[in-house]
Input
Amino acid sequence: MTIRLTANQLSMRFKDRVLFHIPEIAIGPNDSIYLKGDNGVGKTTLLKILAGLLKPTTGKVQTGYDSLWSKLPFQVGRKNVVYLHQSPYLFDGTVYQNVAYGLRFQRQANQEKRNDVIQALRMVGLETLADEHVSVLSGGEKQRVAMARAWILKPSILLMDEPSASLDQESIDRLVIMAQDLLERGSSLVITSHQKNALTDLCRKQWWIKEKTLVESPLLQIIREPNYENLDATSNSN
Output
């Protein structure tokens, strides 16, 4: 399912400090947006507001099926809009259980769910670690698990907050493959990053938070293809 997300007169205030005021935002189907800005300007805050995880001081966020913001408990987030934190929270359990968590309310046969989870883990190169407890994973592997958990939901909009921070090139390439797959399915991406990389190169638009507002501009799309040979070699060696 693809949706359109809009926001109007969006502002966030912390006591006497106005973090930002944004008159209008629109994310359409298959959008890919690189969100930039200095530290502390509110990039993470904006993503959490768009995901429904944080309530703005003023304004409202609307999608095709939750136009009545005031009637929604903002803590539960927005249906089909997924927020991926740069330090992902993983549940106490196995890699498989973490990826399968999002499917618990979907009407699928058990074998179908298992096939989807294994496919997601294969895409991030962690299929052999499916039964391992998440506590044994490295930081990059945890980020891959979080991406697999997001990808398996096939979200209409995926908000990625510094997803490549402290990741090695293989992990970044794995995330690129999943992000490309979502774009090909019609999903939209918003990606924050302090530096351009293979993930931000997927983006065709640029948002820049500066002077407490949002500036939009087109972004030249330069797609770096992941090194599939290296990924296949790594998978075979696991």
About this structure: Residues 66-77 have pLDDT under 50 and may be disordered. The two ends are 35 Å apart (CA to CA). Residues 169-184 form the longest helix (16 residues).
